TrEMBL record:
It comes from the Bacteria. One of its GO terms (molecular function) is acyltransferase activity, transferring groups other than amino-acyl groups. SUPFAM superfamilies: Acyl-CoA N-acyltransferases (Nat). Residues 3-156 form the N-acetyltransferase domain. It comes from Cryobacterium zhongshanensis. PROSITE patterns: GNAT. This is GNAT family N-acetyltransferase.
Length: 156
């Protein structure tokens, strides 16, 4: 199924930013962070990349559209922080739950790779939570290599 990336409109951007912060905080909470700490970390992370609520230079947010042009998810991609301009990062990718399993995530990642390369990227990295086994399998089939592992044991 053909997938396209459309820049997120300025009108939709504040809603996306709030949603992204909530989703990131939720993931951090599921890993054992307190709600207060999770929200603080999510807000701090997004404030650096979106000062004044808009993308910093080198950061791009797209709506993912399927073949008929319906929005089915989003992609945030950009230069890695503190590294050279050729190191890029998939900061966030999400396909709507009801659209998963149709190859849209794979197609989105391939478009992300092409976009990054066309903007001078030589590498494209990403992070994935350990509990997200479906995404981990997808990235492995796209030849992404594990470069570090964080581990956590809940002692509570």
């Amino acid at each position: 199924m053909p997938v396209t990336l459309e820049p997120l409109s300025p009108k939709r951007f504040p809603k996306w930013l709030r949603r992204s912060a909530e989703e990131y905080a939720s993931d951090l909470i599921s890993l054992g962070r307190s709600p207060a700490e999770a929200h603080r970390l999510a807000t701090h992370s997004l404030t650096e990349s979106f000062p004044g609520g808009q993308p910093a230079s080198g950061q791009y947010v797209f709506d993912v559209h399927d073949g008929p042009g319906r929005p089915v998810g989003y992609l945030w991609i950009g230069r890695a922080q503190g590294e050279d301009d050729s190191a890029w990062w998939v900061w966030d990718i999400s396909i709507n739950e009801e659209e998963r399993g149709k190859g849209l995530g794979r197609e989105t990642m391939l478009l992300a790779e092409r976009f990054a390369k066309s903007h001078g990227a030589r590498t494209l990295g990403l992070s994935v939570f350990g509990f997200n086994t479906v995404a981990r399998r997808l990235y492995e089939t796209l030849d992404y290599e594990t470069t570090s592992i964080k581990m956590l044991k809940n002692l509570g």
